[in-house]
Amino acid sequence: MFAYYLQLGLRSLRRNPMLTALMVMAVGFGVAASMITWSVFRAVSGDPIPGKSSQLYTVLVDNRGPQYNDNGEPPEALTYTDATALVAAHKAAHQTLFFNVAPSVLPEGNQSLPFIADGYATNADFFNMFEVPFEYGGAWRAGDDDGRAAVAVISHELNQQLFNGANSVGREITMDRHSYRIVGVTAHWDPKPRFYDLFSHNAFGDPVQLYLPFTRAIDVAMDTSGRNNCGSNTDFGVGREAWLHGECVWVPVWVELPDPAAATGYREFLTHYAAEQQRAGRFHWAPNVRLRGVNDWLDYERVVPPESRISLMVALGFFAICMVNTIGLLLAKFMRRAAEIGVRRALGAPRREIYRQFLIEAAAVGLAGGVLGLLLTALGMFGVGLLFEPEIARLAHLDLSLVATTLLVAIAATVLAAFYPTWRAAQVQPAWQLKSN
Amino acid sequence: MTMHPILAALRKHKAGVVLIALQIALTLAIVCNAVFIIGQRIERVNRPTGLDESNLFLVSQQWVGAPSGDDAASVEKLDSLQLTDLAALRALPGVASVAPINSLPLLNSSWNGAVDHKPGDTNEGSFHGTRTTYYFSDDQALSTLGLRLVAGRNFTAADVGHQGFRDNSEPSVVILTRALADKLFPKGDALGKVIYVNGSTKPTTIIGMVERMQVPGTGTWTNSFVWNATLVPTRMDANFSRYAIRAKPGQLDAVMRAVTPALYKANPMRVLDDDSVRSFAQIRDKAYQADRGMAILMGVVALILLCVTAAGIVGLTSFWVGQRHRQIGVRRALGARKIDILHYFQIENLLIAGTGVVIGVLLALSLNMWLMSHYEMTRIPVLYVLTGVLAMLAIGQAAVFVPARRASNVPPVVATRAV
Questions:
Q1: Taking the domains of chain B in order of start, what are their residue ranges?
Q2: Where is the MacB-like periplasmic core domain (chain B) (predicted)?
Q3: What is the mean pLDDT of chain B?
Q4: Which residues 272-291 in chain B show a CB within 8 A of chain A?
Q5: CB within 8 A of A251, min separation 6: which ones?
Q6: Which residues of B112-121 are buried (b: 16+ CB within 10 A; e: fewer)?
Q7: What is this model's ipTM?
Q8: Interface with chain B: mutation pick from A20, A76, A234, A422, highest number of B CBs within 10 Å
Q9: How much is the pTM?
Q10: What does the alpha-carbon distance between residue A267 and residue A289 come to, in Å, rounded to a whole number?
Q11: Distance CA B163, CA A239 (A)
C-alpha cells in the first residue's frame, strides 16, 4: 500500500503544478537557508577535542586587582612570572604554556627568500595534552625543555615546503638566524575552534607551522607575535627584561586534570599560590583565580561569531514561515479533493487509510522540497564566502551527514506540517460530498 | 458593503485565516528587523575614516635578523634601517608622500591607552582617562593620510623623535582628533592645553587638531572611542615596520608594484609577502566583509520571505475562490457587480492582513528587544515598522488581486448550473 500511496502522491504533485511548485519552493528555500547557516554554526560551535574537553583547563590569575581587572575577571592569560612558576610547580598531571612566535625561516641553500612562519614556543607536554598527531619522529623530551635545547617540531605543511615531504627528523631549520634540529613532523592538525589560542584571537586562523621549546625562545629573546596585554599598568620600565618580569600578560597556560577531584585540588593549589603572592606583597587583593574548562572557555571568549548566531536565528525563523505557508497550501491542496475523499470513505476506507495516504503524499512533497533544498544548499556553500571571513567560511562544507540531515529535515518538517491538513481531510463527511455532487 | 458577511465567511475558514495572519505577522517581524540590520550595517560601512582613501596604500614588512630594540644601540640600528626604507620609498617616482605608521584605520591592529587632563598617580591607581588609540608617525602623517587640520599646526621635523617599541616614554607634543579634544576640553579650548598620557606625570601639549580619524579596530569593543585618535610624532623602532604611502593620482597600481623591488634593493634581509602591500581599498574591504555579508544575507532572506508570503496568499485565496464558485455565482445572479466581488476579496484580505500586522508589530518589537539584549543592537525606529506595515498590507492587496479578479469573472449563470 505504501508504494501505491507514494505513487499517488507523486502523481498528485503534477495535478496542481502551481500549488506544488509553491510548496516545494517554500520547503526547499526554508531548508536550504537553515542548512547553510547550520553548517557554519556547527563548525564554529563544535567541541574541538571531544575526548578530552572535560580534562583540559586554562589557568587564570588576577594580577591586576579589583580596580583594573575586567569586571572582576582576571586577564585572559598569565604573566611570564606566573606561567613559569605554575608550570614548574607540576601540580597537574600535565601542564603546558606557550606564546605565539613568527620567526623568519630561511630555506636551505639560501636560494629563495626568507619567509615568516607562525609557531608556538611551548613545552613537551603541549603535544600529548592537545593530542597532536605525528607523521615522523615525535615531541621533544621534557629534558630538552630544562636543557633549553635548540630543537623544533614542524608541521606537515612546512615539511612539504622545505623538504618536499621527506622525513626531515634530524635535519636543521634556520629560524631568525638560529639553527634548530628537527625532532618531529606533525601530521595535518587543525582543531577548530582553536580553543587554546583564543587569547591572541586565533580561534579560526591558519594552523601553525612550527614549535620550539619555550625556554629556548626566551633565551634567544624571540618576541611574542600574539597579543600582549599590559592593562592600564604600563609602568614596567624599559627593555626586554623589565617587560618579561613585569605585569603584562601574554602566556596562556593549560593543565590536564583527569577527574573533578583533581580539578578541585588544583583550584585549591591556585588559590594558595595567589595567597602566597599576596603575602609576598605582589598582589594587594584576595586571591582571584579561575580554572576554565574547554567549553567554558569557548563560551567566555564568545568564539561563535554573532553573525553566525543571528543568521542561524533568521534562517530558522524563515524556515518557520515557510512551514506555516506549507500548512496553508497543503490545506488548500487536500481540501480540494474533498469529493475524492468522500468517495473513498463511502466505499469503506477507514480514516486511518486517509491519514496514511495524505501523510505519504506530504512526504513526497517534502522529498521534492528536500532535493531542491539540497541543490540550493550546495549553491549556497559558494555564497558563505561573502558572509563570513574566509577562515570561517571555509569551515562550511557539504558532507554526507549534511545531505542526510537536509533531506530528513525537509521530509520530517513537511509531514509535521501536514498533520493538521490531513486531520481536516480525514474529517470529511462522505454523505455531504456525495450529496453535493 | 457591510462587514457582516465577510466576517461570517471568515468564521468558516478559521484555519486558513489564522495561517495567513500568522504568516504575515512572522514575515513582518523578520523583515522589519532584517531591513533594520541592513540599514545599520550600511551606515557602519559608509562612515568615513577621516582619511583621503584614494591613492593610499600600506606596506607592512619585517626584517630578518634585526636587533631586538631593547638597548639604545639596537634602537639606533633599527631606526637607521627604517630611515633607509623611508628614503628609498620617498625617492620612488609616482610617490607623493610617505609616512611610517604603526597602524591605519580599519586595520584591526592597534595600540590603545587613555589620556586625561590630570596627571596620573601611580600609588593611588586613580587614573581614569579618556580612551584613545595612538598613531605613531612623523611630520608626513597628515599629508600622506590626507587628514584635515582644523586648528593649530602640523608636526615639524624637529618634533619627530624615535624610540624602541617597548619604551613607554611619553611624547611632548601630540595632535588629537576634534572628537577627543572636545571630550577632554568640552569648552573647545583644547589647543595649547596640557594632557597626560597613560597615567604618566609628564605633561604633553596639544599642538593641533584634525577633523576626524577613526581607530584601527572595527569590533564593537571600540564603539566607546571610535573617533578618539591621538597622533604622536614618534617613529616606533621594532623588528617590523609599516609605511603609509600616497601615490600621485593615477599611479597607485604602478607604485604598488614598484615598492617590493625597491625595498629589497635597499635591504634584502627582510620578509615581504603577498599581504605586505595592500591598498586602502583592500583594507576597507576586509574590515567590513562580515558587515557586507550580513547585509546581503538579510536582503536575500527578506526578499524571498516576501515572495513566499505573497505566494501563500495567492494559493489560499485561489483555493477559497474555487470553493465559493457557486456562492459567487449566486451573488452575481442576485445583482452584485463584478467590482463588488473584487472588493469583497480585497476587504477580506485587508481584514486578515490587518490582524496579521498588528500581531506582527508586537512580534517585531519583541524580536528587536531580544536582539538588543543579546547583541549590539539599538531600538528599531518607528519609521521602519510603519513602512513594514504598509508594505505588508500592499503586498497582501497585490497578491489577492489575481484570484479576486478571477472570482469577479465568475458568470452569474454558474448559480443555475449543476444543482
A1: 4-45+290-416, 65-268
A2: 34-260
A3: 88
A4: 273, 289-290
A5: A77, A78, A79, A80, A83, A97, A98, A99
A6: bbbbbeeebe
A7: 0.75
A8: A234
A9: 0.78
A10: 8
A11: 11
